[in-house]
């Protein structure tokens, strides 16, 4: 006997590949979006600093705009976007 | 002198009067009513004799009246006395006839009754003929036959009128009022019953009134208008007429109220009947009767355990619509609808039914629901403008025109003054109102939506998604955007998945496209119950793993930094089994079932070697630790006679693939089956149990989950206190756990029962304790 699979529809869920579960600023899960957004995914991605802390992009931008010092809110080291994050 | 006259009346007139009837079998009249109609000859005779005897009485009366008149002409100022004696004379005459013995009284009444009834019947017969003729050709009713009958009627009528005049003079009309009232009522009731009962599709009220105008009142007018002064009798006739009209409305309404329930069942075809009832409702006070009757019928016939929830809901909706026709102010609906609402709120599957009504496009209500967008805004505006108008009235009441208008304002009835009218205007609101909060609906809708989306035959079917989007848009109008935001994301996941699948398949190239596709969901936005994993992970067939790997890699590249997690519980696989003899069988199964059967697939063309596997072997091949899970899912293939089990070894069941089956094999096969029959049965049970669990509404599931949290507290409490009564458990839970615990004592009792069944606790009389 042979089994011919003609269609295999599966169901999967997507998740941000982040070590932490929640954004340190808005305390929302990364798989949710930040408080200002409605749609998760492309529109509200997480970003990493060189210190390896991750936040919603919108959250950290808001933070940086409202503060003179460009610091990571978690570890107070100077904030720089980590480029090339896998 | 009066005594002499009295004596004379009693002796000679009375005997003279009754002599006319000596030939007739008067006893027959007394005996029963049915014989009256049977013996028409006798009746004719009595009828004629009655006419003659009245003539006789009339002559006697006139003779005495003349003499009296003559007597009093010579006395001054005696007209009052004259009238008095005239009345006395009438009474004497009547008494002399009727008071001879009690049977005579009865007989006389019977004769009168018969007389009026007979005349009335022939009158109606003729009238109906003419009426019919009138309707058939209103223009040309000068045909010979018709004219003849009209002449006939005229003749009869004039005869009747003269007779009535005589009766008036003799004061017999006054005495027989109740008799012809009875006859007329009987006719009306009969007419209403015959014409209207069971027929809801035409309007009858106007018809009935017209019939009464044309026939009944004509006859009545002949009787009443024939005697006395025209003005006086005119007045009298008007009184009669209003009295009768009222009782027509009353009777009609009674008849209709009795049938209201079936009228509601036949809605909307019963609309005319309902409109009729609405007219009555405005005219006469039937409100209480209607509410009482309808409520009791609804209680008896609708709110029964045997009735299906969908039926109750649709009946509820027709009730609302019907009652709105009868009573536009909506107060009836509030009163009658309350018990239905309460009953529906008790049923567990109500929410589910309601939500499915609004999302099922074959349902009639769905159409109404779809129309909501168009007319609702208009309605709202209209309502606002009326409110403004009323404000306006208050401002300048002295304006005559407006004042008159404002007089038409109808106060809301007492039973509903705290509910606003607007609420009863919309079907959807009516249904949603059954429950206190919208959240229940939104949650139920969300879980049903997720079920529909996940179980769809083709996940990337445009029509499916479009339908859901329209539904969602409509629901958003009702519930507001925020509450349905999650549902929106769910639908968006579907469309996004489709796009991504297309994109990734394109990237991978047409060669590698394969058969694998996947939905990509935003987990947090789907109901947690819908995406709950129950299966342990297992291995897909090799080819699928390869395709899946490619897909995920591509996804992670396109959508970095994201990753995909496969959900093993979900999905569907279409496959065909190609048997050794070339037969093919097609199946649509779950991924785990597909993975299992793939293990039996023979590689290459070696048809001799049968794949034989034990459960352990299968588990290791699937990399699945849960043996029970594999065994359960294997039952599907055994039930479909694809796989069979021999002494713990599973192999393909080739029995049905060969055309000729030898006896031995059948026995063998049966034996093998007998071995596993129990398993199959239990598997069937499991399937049923699983299905039942799925049918539970979300709220139920949530409640159960909550209760599971409570379980730990209860166990803890029982360990500390050793024994506790239901009361105390309930009180302590409410006191210390008010956040998680919101159940009633009854619900708690149920839950404790469950725990007893699970052998975690036990019950001694009224005290619960931990089971050792």
TrEMBL record, chain A:
Protein's pathway: Protein modification; protein ubiquitination
Compartment list: Nucleus
MF-aspect GO terms: cullin family protein binding; ubiquitin protein ligase activity; zinc ion binding
GO CC terms in record: anaphase-promoting complex
Protein family membership: Belongs to the RING-box family.
Domain RING-type: 34-76
Chief location of this protein within or outside the cell: nucleus
Record protein name field: Anaphase-promoting complex subunit 11
Coiled-coil region(s): none
Natural source organism: Tieghemostelium lacteum (Slime mold)
Keyword field: Cell cycle, Cell division, Metal-binding, Mitosis, Nucleus, Ubl conjugation pathway, Zinc, Zinc-finger
Pfam family, one: zf-ANAPC11
GO biological process terms, semicolon-separated: anaphase-promoting complex-dependent catabolic process; cell division
TrEMBL record, chain B:
UniProt-listed Gene3D superfamilies: Cullin Repeats, Cullin, Chain C, Domain 2, Winged helix-like DNA-binding domain superfamily/Winged helix DNA-binding domain
One Pfam family linked to the record: ANAPC2
InterPro entries referenced in this protein's UniProt entry, alphabetically: ANAPC2 (IPR044554), ANAPC2_C (IPR014786), Cullin-like_AB (IPR059120), Cullin_homology (IPR016158), Cullin_homology_sf (IPR036317), TPR_ANAPC2 (IPR057975), WH-like_DNA-bd_sf (IPR036388), WH_DNA-bd_sf (IPR036390)
PROSITE patterns the UniProt entry points to: CULLIN_2
Residues making up the signal peptide according to the UniProt record: none
Record pathway: Protein modification; protein ubiquitination
Keyword DNA-binding: no
Positions of the Cullin family profile domain: 431-618
Keyword field: Cell cycle, Cell division, Mitosis, Ubl conjugation pathway
SMART domains: APC2, CULLIN
Origin: domain of life: Eukaryota
Single GO MF descriptor: ubiquitin protein ligase binding
GO process terms (BP): metaphase/anaphase transition of mitotic cell cycle; protein K11-linked ubiquitination; ubiquitin-dependent protein catabolic process
Family assignment from sequence similarity: Belongs to the cullin family.
Protein name: Anaphase-promoting complex subunit 2
Organism of provenance: Tieghemostelium lacteum
């Amino acid at each position: 006997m042979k089994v011919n699979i003609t269609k295999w529809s599966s169901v999967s869920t997507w998740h941000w590949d982040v070590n932490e579960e929640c954004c340190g600023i808005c305390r929302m899960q990364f798989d949710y979006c930040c408080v200002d957004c409605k749609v998760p995914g492309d529109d509200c991605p997480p970003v990493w600093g060189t210190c390896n802390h991750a936040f919603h992009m919108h959250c950290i931008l808001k933070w940086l705009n409202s503060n003179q010092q460009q610091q990571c809110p978690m570890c107070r080291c100077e904030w720089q976007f980590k480029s090339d994050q896998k | 002198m009066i005594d002499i006259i009295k004596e004379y009346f009693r002796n000679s007139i009375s005997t003279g009067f009754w002599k006319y009837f000596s030939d007739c079998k008067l006893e027959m009249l007394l005996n029963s009513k049915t014989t009256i109609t049977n013996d028409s000859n006798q009746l004719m005779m009595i009828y004629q004799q009655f006419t003659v005897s009245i003539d006789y009485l009339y002559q006697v009366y006139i003779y005495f009246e003349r003499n009296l008149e003559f007597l009093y002409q010579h006395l001054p100022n005696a007209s009052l006395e004259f009238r008095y004696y005239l009345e006395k004379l009438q009474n004497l005459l009547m008494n002399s006839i009727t008071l001879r013995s009690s049977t005579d009284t009865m007989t006389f009444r019977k004769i009168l009754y018969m007389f009026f009834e007979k005349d009335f019947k022939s009158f109606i017969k003729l009238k109906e003929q003419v009426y019919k003729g009138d309707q058939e050709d209103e223009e040309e009713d000068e045909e010979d036959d018709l004219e003849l009958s009209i002449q006939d009627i005229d003749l009869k009528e004039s005869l009747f009128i003269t007779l009535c005049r005589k009766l008036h003079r003799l004061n017999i009309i006054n005495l027989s009022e109740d008799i012809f009232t009875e006859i007329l009522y009987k006719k009306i009731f009969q007419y209403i019953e015959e014409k209207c009962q069971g027929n809801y599709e035409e309007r009858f009220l106007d018809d009935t009134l017209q019939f009464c105008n044309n026939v009944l009142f004509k006859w009545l007018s002949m009787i009443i208008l024939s005697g006395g002064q025209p003005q006086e009798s005119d007045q009298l006739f008007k009184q009669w007429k209003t009295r009768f009209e009222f009782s027509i409305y009353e009777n009609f309404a009674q008849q209709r109220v009795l049938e209201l329930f079936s009228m509601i069942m036949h809605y909307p075809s019963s609309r005319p009947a309902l409109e009729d009832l609405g007219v009555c409702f405005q005219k006469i006070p039937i409100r209480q009767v209607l509410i009482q009757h309808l409520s009791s019928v609804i209680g008896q016939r609708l709110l029964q355990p045997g009735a299906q929830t969908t039926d109750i809901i649709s009946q509820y909706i027709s009730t609302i619509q019907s009652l709105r026709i009868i009573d536009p102010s909506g107060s009836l609906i509030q009163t009658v609808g309350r018990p239905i609402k309460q009953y529906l709120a008790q049923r567990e599957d109500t929410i589910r039914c309601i939500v499915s009504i609004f999302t099922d496009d074959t349902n009639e209500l769905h159409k109404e629901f779809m129309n909501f967008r168009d007319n609702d805004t208009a309605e709202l505006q209209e309502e606002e403008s009326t409110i403004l108008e009323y404000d306006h009235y208050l401002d300048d009441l002295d304006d005559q025109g407006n004042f008159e208008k404002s007089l038409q304002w109808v106060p809301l009835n007492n039973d509903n003054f705290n509910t606003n009218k607007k609420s009863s205007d919309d079907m959807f609101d009516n249904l949603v109102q059954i429950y206190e909060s919208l959240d229940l609906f939104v949650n139920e809708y969300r879980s049903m939506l997720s079920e529909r989306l996940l179980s769809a035959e083709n996940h990337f079917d445009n029509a499916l998604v479009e339908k859901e989007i329209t539904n969602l848009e409509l629901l958003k109008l009702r519930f507001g955007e925020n509450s349905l935001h999650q549902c929106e994301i769910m639908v968006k996941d579907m469309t996004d998945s489709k796009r991504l699948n297309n994109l990734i398949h394109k990237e991978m190239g047409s060669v590698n496209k394969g058969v694998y596709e996947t939905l990509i969901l935003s987990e947090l936005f789907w109901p947690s119950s819908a995406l709950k994993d129950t299966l342990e992970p297992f291995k897909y067939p090799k080819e699928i793993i390869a395709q899946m790997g490619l897909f995920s890699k591509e996804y992670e590249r396109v959508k970095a930094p994201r990753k995909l997690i496969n959900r093993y519980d979900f999905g569907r696989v279409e496959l065909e089994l190609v048997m050794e003899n070339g037969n093919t069988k097609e199946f649509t199964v779950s991924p785990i079932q597909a993975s299992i059967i793939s293990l039996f697939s023979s590689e290459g063309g070696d048809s001799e070697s049968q794949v034989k596997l034990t459960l352990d072997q299968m588990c290791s091949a699937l990399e699945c630790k849960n043996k029970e899970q594999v065994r359960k899912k294997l039952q599907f293939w055994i039930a479909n006679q694809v796989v069979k089990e021999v002494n713990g070894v599973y192999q393909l069941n080739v029995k049905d693939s060969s055309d000729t089956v030898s006896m031995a094999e059948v026995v063998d096969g049966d034996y093998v089956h007998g071995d596993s029959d129990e398993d199959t049965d239990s598997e069937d049970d499991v399937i049923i149990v699983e299905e039942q669990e799925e049918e539970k509404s979300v709220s139920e599931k949530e409640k159960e989950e909550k209760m599971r949290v409570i379980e730990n507290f209860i166990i803890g409490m029982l360990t500390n206190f050793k024994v506790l009564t239901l009361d105390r458990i309930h009180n302590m839970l409410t006191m210390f756990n008010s956040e998680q615990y919101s159940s009633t004592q009854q619900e708690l009792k149920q839950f404790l029962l469950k725990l007893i069944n699970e052998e975690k606790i036990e019950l001694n009389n009224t005290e619960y304790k931990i089971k050792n």
